[in-house]
Design brief:
transmembrane; transmembrane helix; membrane; EamA family transporter
């Protein structure tokens, strides 16, 4: 298991790095490209990069009896993506990453309401501590509070809802089928706003849009592989490397500085996340 954990940690650390690079690319392009185009590019290029994998698995294996749940998951996931991309462009990268990391604290609550799964005492404490950490990051009532962060909280809740939908389909749907239907349906859903917001990307911008899709897809595949070969409770804490990557990228490219309340919030959120994983 030690070898598996080591490999899992490498996959997860690399996956989070790729997702942080994707976030930085989104922030870089946000001044020149609309959110609608950014979300669509993430999905369409991600789908193109997934097609060889699906071809290898076989097209016949894509037949499903859970199409409606795939559709719900895709619509909810695209809404979460819109919210997260919006937050990336308006908050420092480290704070955007921390707001996104509040998603695991919504998961037990949604699973309780939808699937009837019980919440342990450790998980309940983790949720409370995690949301206290979010309060430190958001700083409500202070001069530095940015209401846009609430969009990120909503996006994190929607992302959790999408994950619970995946869990509800797990008995009959293999991972590659879930990934394909999300990529396919999310591309269709995110194309709808382009009917009135279409922008023809320039030749200079197109490679950057493709890079967003590639980085996001590689990141997701690496993280999926990490959880397949290593114990989720042991390898999971490495996902918090996203905060370090985001802080470094934000500092290097945008001179973003982390304030003391963000550091306190980071410690609480990361600590609560680890406690939540240990309670499983």
């Amino acid at each position: 298991m030690s070898d598996d954990l080591r490999k899992g940690a490498i996959f997860l650390l690399t996956g989070e790095l790729m997702l942080s690079v994707m976030a930085a690319l989104i922030k870089h392009l946000s001044g020149d490209v609309s959110h609608e185009m950014l979300v669509f590019a993430r999905n369409v290029f991600g789908l193109l990069f997934l097609l060889p994998i699906v071809y290898h698995q076989g097209w016949r294996n894509l037949k499903t009896q859970r199409f409606s749940q795939h559709l719900v998951r895709s619509v909810v996931g695209v809404c979460a993506m819109y919210g997260y991309f919006y937050v990336i462009t308006h908050l420092p990268l480290a704070e955007a990453a921390l707001v996104k990391l509040s998603s695991p604290f919504f998961l037990p609550l949604i699973a309780l309401i939808w699937l009837g799964e019980k919440i342990s005492h450790k998980t309940l404490w983790a949720i409370i501590i995690g949301f206290i950490g979010v309060v430190f990051v958001l700083r409500p009532g202070s001069d530095t509070f940015q209401p846009v962060a609430l969009v990120g909280i909503l996006a994190a809740a929607l992302a959790s809802l999408a994950k619970v939908t995946i869990r509800n389909m797990a008995e009959t749907e293999p991972s590659y089928r879930i990934v394909f239907y999300f990529g396919f349906l999310a591309t269709l859903v995110s194309a709808i706003p382009l009917l009135w917001r279409w922008e023809t990307p320039s030749l200079q911008v197109l490679p950057w849009l493709a890079a967003i899709g590639l980085a996001g897809t590689i990141g997701q595949l690496l993280m999926t592989k990490a959880y397949q070969i290593a114990n989720p409770g042991k390898v999971g804490p490495y996902t918090y490397s996203a905060v370090i990557y985001a802080a470094l990228l934000g500092w290097v490219f945008w001179n973003e500085v982390i304030v003391i309340t963000t550091l306190i919030g980071s410690a609480l959120i990361i600590g609560a996340g680890i406690l939540n994983m240990k309670s499983r």
